[in-house]
Design a protein that fits this description.
- By secondary structure, this protein is an alpha/beta fold.
- The chain folds into two domains: about 40-120 and about 135-250, Aldehyde Dehydrogenase, Chain A, domain 1 (3-Layer(aba) Sandwich), CATH 3.40.605.10; about 255-340, Aldehyde Dehydrogenase, Chain A, domain 2, CATH 3.40.309.
- Helix content is about 45%, strand content about 15%.
- The protein is globular, with a radius of gyration of 24 Å.
Amino acid sequence: MAERLNMFINGEWTPSHSGATREILNPANGIVIGIAAEGDEQDAQRAIAAAKEAFYEGGWWGTPAAERARLLFKAADLLEAKKEEFTRMETLNNGKPLRESVFDVNDAIACFRYFAGLATKPHGQSYEVSDPMQAIVVREPIGVCGQIIPWNYPLLMAAWKLAPALAAGNTVVFKPSEITPLSAVRLFELFEEAGFPASVVNLVLGAGATVGHTLAAHDDVDKIAFTGGTATGRKIMQAATGNLKKISLELGGKSPNIVFADADFETAVDYALFAIFANQGQVCAAGSRLLLEESVYERFMERLVERTKAIVVGDGMADGTEMGPLITEAHLNKVLHNVEIGRPKVQPFSAAAAG
């Protein structure tokens, strides 16, 4: 039976107020692996109100750095204890090979520990100015942080967003991708087990057009952090102008991979392959353009094609799989379309027309 996935709002696990749900699929075979609550604007507003109360009335803003660090260290320990479970969960929901999921989980653990340690390190700065004046910089938390991540690194992106925000003393309303929520739900269970105060961490599931837009536009959200596509990033920036909230945008790109003739040949081929095929190529910094010095072009392309054909594609859970499936059928069709429009177009030649 598919797992039921609820939201975590105000310290309680709850379905959406409307009762709506979404099927979560294994991209390798299309099997339903979860039934997720499908939140909307009302659910997001409830989570924002809870986060605001926790920050001010709950006093999270004034929680000592040592206590924030303790909670993050505890979350990291719990995640490490469940490392194998999270590794399999990430592959099951995202499709990437297990060997890549192992790296992601280890990196997420390290991220929580890094920011837990950093929480107790920053101090105010003082500057020499004209007597008898003194200038002091004091760092304070921002407030309620709305956080939105994509589906390509569900756990790792969550760690990168959540750890620094919580270490700095902010409360959060977190929205994972609506198609890869499994690891986020399980991570918030660990937050609850670690003892984070109610409403400091809130999880809302649902689509970007409803939940994501509400987080970006709401006046009680003090910062919005988004990783994803450029078009959506523009919409978030526009929505955030209502209260001039702080914004962090990490958007897509077309990263060039440049190879000169004096490069170590096989190493260059290895990294060209990694740049475009790691995580099925679903990476915002993927090396999607390969620029080769002319003198090595033919040799390089021949070797690249040979190595590409040898990549083992299959279910990420299977032994020996080097590249898993794309995340959804819709995304597969988009990639196939892009491949087609990138092919050289041969124009028909007419002798009569030339004559």
